[in-house]
Amino acid sequence: MKNPRQLIFPFSIDKKSSLSKFFVPLGSESLVKALSNKDGDDIVITGKKGFGKSYLLQSMCNDHSSDSFSVSYIPLREAIKLQPELLDGLESLDLVCIDDLEKIASNKEWQVACFNLINHCSESGCRLIFSCMEGEDDFFPDLLSRLKKMTNYKINPTPDSQLADALKFIASNLRIPIKDREINFLLNTCSRDLPKLIVSLKEIDSLSMESKRKITIPLIKELL
């Protein structure tokens, strides 16, 4: 950390998130590999809602944070309620992850603050990781130019061929005791959209714990 100082922000982060717990959809292997490295290019991650952009940024902060490597996670969906001066001095850190870039598309002051941060980080050596909703890049030309010069990755949706493996992987990480038969039933009766399936999986687990019953097809049917 350069010119170390304590930076305290009113933003929460999922302390359990980790890149090792992220199910990597086909085509996104190079992105996760790039994030696994402490050092590397500045990155812009795009993707649709629910594809894991926020999870990846928080995981990167958790995985790389140490006494000798300072990090910060800034969710713009919350930060935009504050003054853009919030970004001042972040270039003194080693890694800054800025989430929800699309939230400042209509806010010139925040766009200028991000533009200035990029320039300052380029000089200090602080690595920047941005996330932005796919197709939403209505930023002023100078900021857009800086973002396009970074390494850009797009998170792919999880294909049907991986959905069963994805649910097993996620259930294991969440310690949800669900068997293959029930997972296959869930896939055959619910939307084959991974974010929605994860929500259903958590609801099933909650019902299982509340009713003190194992996860079975009859129990799943009660929620469908």
From TrEMBL:
<dbReference type="InterPro" id="IPR027417">
    <property type="entry name" value="P-loop_NTPase"/>
</dbReference>
<dbReference type="Pfam" id="PF22688">
    <property type="entry name" value="Hda_lid"/>
</dbReference>
<dbReference type="GO" id="GO:0032297">
    <property type="term" value="P:negative regulation of DNA-templated DNA replication initiation"/>
</dbReference>
<keyword id="KW-0648">Protein biosynthesis</keyword>
<dbReference type="GO" id="GO:0003743">
    <property type="term" value="F:translation initiation factor activity"/>
</dbReference>
<dbReference type="GO" id="GO:0006270">
    <property type="term" value="P:DNA replication initiation"/>
</dbReference>
<dbReference type="InterPro" id="IPR055199">
    <property type="entry name" value="Hda_lid"/>
</dbReference>
<feature type="domain" description="Hda lid">
    <location>
        <begin position="160"/>
        <end position="224"/>
    </location>
</feature>
<protein>
    <submittedName>
        <fullName>DNA replication initiation factor</fullName>
    </submittedName>
</protein>
<keyword id="KW-0396">Initiation factor</keyword>
